[in-house]
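**Archive record**
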Amino acid sequence: MSSAPDPQTDSPIGLVYALSAYLCWGALPIYMKALSDVPAAEIIAHRVIWSLPIAAAVLIWQGRQDQVLAALRQPRLLAMAALTAVLISANWLIYVWAITHDHALDAALGYYINPLFSVLLGSLVLKEVLSRSQLLAIALAAGAVVILTVQAGRLPMVAMGLTLSWGTYAYCKKRLPLGPNQGFTLEVLLLMPLALIYLGWMGATGQGLSYDASTWALLLGCGPVTAIPLLFYANGAKLIRLSTIGILQYVTPTLIFLCAVIVFGEPFEGARLVAFPMIWAALAIYTASLLRQAGRRRRDRRLAATRRMQ
């Protein structure tokens, strides 16, 4: 945006952007479930292709298209954008496969773990200080993952894949020296050749592409349902702290969880009956801690302002 964000505070508009993104993502399983007959990789290709016109239109409206063209001539920046593009496409692929193959609860678990991963990155890499309550929340969430792993006899691979790909993307996106809208446009621009090649190969080998009108409408709609939340998120991530992003991420898995259990009818039983409440308890503890910290910061700012006036 127009001014550099303070890394220790949250911008109100940044909170609105981020929350809007998470609400959109929480409702996305219903949309993707309607595309269950389409291969996940093909859905990703359409997400890339139909996102680019929207992202480009936003940049042209803002008059910032020259910044993307300039970025294409900077090898280091281009390499960083290529990394974020790989991470986001991997996240998309895992997520779409999970939804279309009746693993929406695993996807919800992955996005519940995501905030934990973001908080750990914030603490270990960005040196954000965690309170005892926040550490307790992390321990509870980690315990939930252990319970699910022991019950299944293996790591929850869908959940871990979503956690690692999105958590790393969030961190790299925050470090990318490019505006949020410009960064997203550059990412889909870099992915576009791969998407076109893949769809071209699908067509040449007689696979896919022969869908009815309603399926094509949904595939075309992959553009706005992909680009709009990501643009919201990209703007919000630049304006709020990584730890705040972590707690807001719980909005998405909660909505995915409700879709999985209520709408899709996936079984919620066994170890999940223990693990999910543990994660919800971690959310409650961590949220309370953040609220206490925010209250202290507000009091400190008011006190400082009063002293300046005296």
